[in-house]
Amino acid sequence: MQPVLIAGKWRAADAAGSFQAANPQTGATLPDVYPTSAWTDCDAALTAAAAAFQTLRTLPRTKIAGFLRDFAARIEANVEPLAAMANAETGYPVKPRLAEVELPRTTNQLRAAAAACEEESWTRPTIDTKLDIRARYEALGPVAVFGPNNFPFAFGSCSGGDFAAAIAAGCPVIAKANTSHPGTTRLFAELAQLSADAAGLPTGMVQLIYRTSHTDGERLVSDPRLAAIAYTGSRSAGLKLKAAADAVGKPIYVELSSVNPLVILPGALKERGEKLVDEFLTSALMGTGQFCTNPGLVVLLAGAECETFLAAVGKRYEAAPVGALLSKSVAESLARGVDVLEQAGAKVLAGGKPSDAAGFRHSNTLLRATAKQFIAAPHVLQTECFGNASLAVVCESVDELLGVLKSLEGNLTGCVYSDTAGSDDATYDKIVPALRERVGRLLNDKMPTGVAVSAAMNHGGPFPATGHPGFTAVGIPTAIDRFAMWACYDNVREARLPEALKNKNPTGKLWRSIDGRWTQE
User: Fold this and answer.
1) Can you give the pTM of this predicted structure?
2) Quick one: residue 515, left, alpha or beta (phi over 0 = left, psi -120 to 50 = alpha)?
3) Residues 318 and 440 in one domain
């Protein structure tokens, strides 16, 4: 039984049960055994995190930034074991996916978080000299991070963007591993603890449990010692956690479900139809479609070009290799989702059935529905099929297309492909206001699967894409805000103020709003 990390020590779990991960490529169970922790483990982790937070409030930001940089360096020094473990648990290739793409993204996020932590402009110090009122964002308290199954490094509960943002804010993290890749998370936690020790951070800065019962998970997120939660995963589990956190007024940032509508207008198909088939296929089947931003819904206007496009995509889906899905439960969920779409009237153009190949697989699936069907049952036909399946909705008119977009739930992304010569401009102008309201990130002539680590990036959106449209899970320093509170100081003596709010700029580089003007003075 693998140990849990609590209060700076690896120790035997108080196990209420156990589980093992499986290799998605073969379906074979992996040898390591992991505990399902009883509440006593959660209770101990919460107590340690609360104590760590009190110490953190007194430490210089340079110590936290030093931890993040040292952690990034240790990750880079351990590429081989990390990538090997993740390959066994997720089926993702070591190269280029894990070692050359996701791992550098992870270390870049950590270093960006270190820079923001040290520089502190993310706290937005604001000073009203006339009334002597001063305020800034400050760390909220211990954070629980529930990592997803599809990005074991860059979104991992003990390595990814939520982890980096919470630490940069000055919050201890209780990492809850995803049960699809517990070994990968354990390796990251081992390195994180070494970095925390080297930086002289308090015990309980980083902690790890692997699994809890649903009841204990809901109890964890509603515990008063926990300040906030970040969750990426299934809609059903996320909504239960959100209800528990909402009941006690606790901020919880959930990423739940997104079909990421992709609109391809007729002029674009006429201009570069074959190229769009290639782009769509690459985006939809990359990583066996297991991206938060996978284009699960493609909306087209009826016509010869539409039929040519769908026929070509269907043939390519049938011919493309069938990749492994991350777990048995993902494969089963995908099969259920496809069945729901079929029962709602969607027609299968390619695939549609589970694969009989080894491991966890489902045939590459393309379905088709009319706009009338979609508008009549939008909730059902927006069922997310997480994996290598997409639904095409064919509209008879621009008004029908607009009706489809107005029927959408909230999504992470929305994309419109249009003719570069301008023949689609009038349609674009008519439909985009409706799309803009329903997506966090609007794209033009670009597939949505790539999510750049940029301060301007929004990896968020209206419900159910996320639980709150005002925040992003990607992009430093903007992602840090989720784990901070607006702390106001009214007529507080200067000697008692945080350095960032004193009259003198502590570094000369910190941006502060002084009497309504942003300045480094």
Assistant:
1) 0.95
2) left
3) yes
